[in-house]
From TrEMBL:
PANTHER family in UniProt: ALPHA-L-ARABINOFURANOSIDASE C-RELATED, INTRACELLULAR EXO-ALPHA-L-ARABINOFURANOSIDASE 2
Listed EC numbers: 3.2.1.55
Quaternary structure annotation from Swiss-Prot or TrEMBL: Homohexamer; trimer of dimers.
Stated name of the protein: non-reducing end alpha-L-arabinofuranosidase
Organism for this UniProt entry: Alkalihalophilus lindianensis
Leader sequence residues: none
InterPro entries, sorted: Alpha-L-AF_C, ASD1_cat, GH, Glyco_hydro_b
Pathway: Glycan metabolism
Keywords (A to Z) from UniProt: Carbohydrate metabolism, Glycosidase, Hydrolase
Any Pfam family the entry gives: Alpha-L-AF_C
Domain of life: Bacteria
Length: 496
C-alpha cells in the first residue's frame, strides 16, 4: 500500500470551475442521435415528442450544462434547412463520414432545441464552414434567434415555433484542418473572420463565438488563429482523443485487460495537461487577459469498434479505465480553470466514450456516466489549491503519479475532494491536512467507483457491475482526514 500526503487550503480559493467543462457532444454519427436520443413519436420505446424518456431521465441526473451538435465532421456537411418543416418532406442525405448511411433529417433544429429544453442545457451549435455558405450560416442564426419581421422568423413560425430560442454558443466550423475542409490555418483564419461577421446578435441574444481550433499539438494552428483572428472570437477549440494504440493501425480494444494497455491509456489521458499548457501559453501571448477561452469541445477515449458493429458507427464499450480517463481530464480542466471554460466529451450516447449505451428499449449507464454524476458537486464551485506528495505508479521502466486530486468549495461552504487512483494493483493510503477551516470537520461522506478487473464494465445482462459505492473508513481527526483509496478507483469526499 502506498502512502500519500495532501494539503488543501480551504480558505484561499483561486477562481471558479466553469460547469461547462462538464459539457457534452452529440453528433449525427452511428446510434447517437438516432436510437440514442431520437426514436420518433410512433416508437414503442417510451418517448416524449420522439425523444427517449429513459435517456433524458438519466441525463437530467448529471445536469448536463451544455450540449454540442450536430457535429463533428457531420457539421461541415450539414445543411440546416434540410432538417426543418414537416418530417415526411425532409430531404434525405448520405452521411458520408459515418457509415454512408441514409440521414433522413428527422432530427433537426427544432428537435435539438426541444432536447436542450428537456435537459435544461445550453445548446452549442456548430455551423458549416466546409461546405456551407455565409448566407446559410447567417440565416440559421437568424432563424433561431430573431424575433422581428424577417423571412427566417416567418419560416420558423410557419414551422410551429413562435418565440425565438435562446442560443449562446455557436461554433464556426469543425476541424477545418481536416474533415471540415482540409484548410491551412491562414485560410481558415480568414474564412473565420468572414463567416463570424454574419453570426449576428439579434435582440438580447448574445452569441459566444467559438473558432475551430487545433488538433492535438498543432501549435501553429493556435498561433495563427490567435494572431490573425483572436479579436473576433470568444473561444478557440482544441480536440484531443485518448487512443492507446494508433489512429489508423489499430486503436486498441475498449475491454483489453492487459496492464500495458491500462498504463498507456493513463499516460495518454494525462498528456492533455501538456497540450493545454502549451496551447494556453500561445494564447497568453496574444491574450494576456484571458478573454478568449480554450474550449476542449472533443475529448475522450477512442478505441476500436466492438466486434460485429459498423466500423463507421464508433460504438465501443466503456470500462473502469474510461472512468479514470474522465476523472483525470476533469482534474486537469479544473487546474486550468482560468483558460479552459468549456469541454465536451465525445459522445453522449452509443458513440466513443459514451455515458449511456442502448440496445432497443434497454439502456445501461457506463462507468463514465458515474464519474459525471459524482463530480456534479464541482460545477461552478471555487477551485481550491491542493499540494500533494504522491508516490508513483510504476510500470516496466516508466511511471506516473499514482494519485490525481482536485478540490473545490461550493456556495454552502462544503468542500469536495475528488481522487483518481490510477494504479490497477495498489491501494493508496492518504493523509489529508485541511488548512483554513473555521471549525473542524463535522462530517465526511465519501463515494467510490472501482472494480475488480481493469476491463470491468456494465452490460445489458449485468448493468450494475460498476457503480458507485460508499467509501468506508474515512477517519476524521480535527483538521486531518485519513482515507484508503482502492486500486483503479475514482472517489469523492464531501466535507461539511
Ligand atoms: O467524434 C468523432 C469525430 O472525431 C468528430 O466528428 C470529429 O470532429 C473528430 O475527428
Amino acid at each position: 500500500m502506498a502512502n500519500h500526503h495532501l494539503i488543501i487550503n480551504t480558505d484561499t480559493p483561486e477562481g471558479t470551475i466553469n460547469k461547462n467543462i462538464y459539457g457534452h457532444f452529440s453528433e449525427h454519427l452511428g446510434r447517437c442521435i438516432y436510437e440514442g436520443f431520437w426514436v420518433g413519436e410512433d416508437s414503442e420505446i417510451p418517448n416524449t415528442n420522439g425523444i427517449r424518456n429513459d435517456v433524458t431521465k438519466a441525463l437530467k441526473n448529471i445536469n448536463i450544462p451544455v450540449l454540442r451538435w450536430p457535429g463533428g465532421c457531420f457539421a461541415d456537411e450539414y445543411h440546416w434547412k434540410d432538417g426543418i418543416g414537416p418530417r415526411e418532406n425532409r430531404k434525405k442525405m448520405v452521411n458520408t463520414h459515418w457509415g454512408g448511411v441514409v440521414e433522413n433529417n428527422h432530427f433537426g433544429t427544432h428537435e435539438f432545441m426541444m432536447l436542450c429544453e428537456m435537459l435544461n442545457t445550453e445548446p452549442y451549435i456548430c455551423g458549416n464552414v466546409g461546405s456551407g455558405t455565409v448566407q446559410e450560416m447567417q440565416e440559421w442564426v437568424e432563424y433561431m434567434t430573431f424575433n422581428g419581421e424577417s423571412p427566417m422568423t416567418n419560416l420558423r413560425k410557419e414551422n410551429g415555433r413562435e418565440e425565438p430560442w435562446h442560443l449562446k454558443y455557436f461554433g464556426v466550423g469543425n476541424e477545418n484542418w481536416g474533415c471540415g475542409g482540409n484548410m491551412r490555418p491562414e485560410y481558415y483564419s480568414d474564412l473565420y473572420r468572414r463567416y463570424q461577421t454574419y453570426v449576428r446578435n439579434y435582440g438580447d441574444n448574445k452569441i459566444y463565438k467559438i473558432a475551430g481550433g487545433a488538433n492535438i499539438d498543432d501549435y501553429h494552428w493556435t498561433e495563427v488563429l490567435m494572431r490573425e483572428s483572436g479579436e473576433f472570437m470568444n473561444g478557440l477549440s482544441l480536440h484531443y482523443y485518448t487512443i492507446p494504440g494508433h489512429f489508423w493501425k489499430g486503436k486498441g480494444s475498449a475491454t483489453d485487460p492487459r496492464e500495458s494497455e491500462w498504463f498507456i491509456t493513463m499516460k495518454k489521458a494525462a498528456h492533455i495537461d501538456e497540450l493545454i499548457t502549451k496551447h494556453s501559453a500561445i494564447m497568453d501571448q496574444y491574450d494576456p487577459e484571458k478573454k478568449v477561452a480554450l474550449i476542449v469541445d472533443e475529448w475522450g477515449t477512442w478505441f476500436d469498434v466492438e466486434t460485429g458493429t459498423n466500423p463507421g458507427f464508433l460504438y465501443q464499450q466503456n470500462t473502469i479505465r474510461d472512468a479514470l480517463v474522465a476523472g483525470l481530464h476533469f482534474h486537469i480542466f479544473h487546474a486550468h480553470h482560468e483558460r479552459v471554460q468549456m469541454a465536451n466529451i465525445a459522445q453522449t450516447v452509443n458513440v466513443l466514450q459514451a455515458m449511456i449505451l442502448t440496445e432497443g428499449e434497454n439502456l445501461i449507464l457506463t462507468p463514465t456516466y458515474h464519474v459525471f454524476e459524482m463530480y456534479k458537486v464541482h460545477h461552478d464551485a471555487r477551485h481550491l489549491p491542493v499540494s500533494i506528495s504522491s508516490e508513483d505508479y510504476l510500470f516496466e521502466d516508466d511511471s506516473l503519479p499514482q494519485l490525481s486530486v482536485s478540490a473545490s468549495k461550493n456556495e454552502a461552504g462544503e468542500v469536495n475532494i475528488s481522487f483518481c487512483n490510477i494504479d490497477p494493483n495498489k491501494e493508496a493510503s492518504l493523509n489529508i491536512s485541511l488548512r483554513g477551516l473555521k471549525e473542524g470537520i463535522s462530517e465526511a461522506y465519501g463515494r467510490v467507483l472501482t472494480a475488480s478487473g481493469t476491463n470491468a464494465h456494465n452490460t445489458f445482462e449485468n448493468p450494475d457491475n460498476v457503480k458507485p459505492e460508499t467509501l468506508k473508513n474515512i477517519k476524521i481527526n480535527e483538521e486531518e482526514l485519513t482515507v484508503k483509496l482502492p486500486s483503479k478507483s475514482v472517489s469523492i469526499i464531501t466535507l461539511r
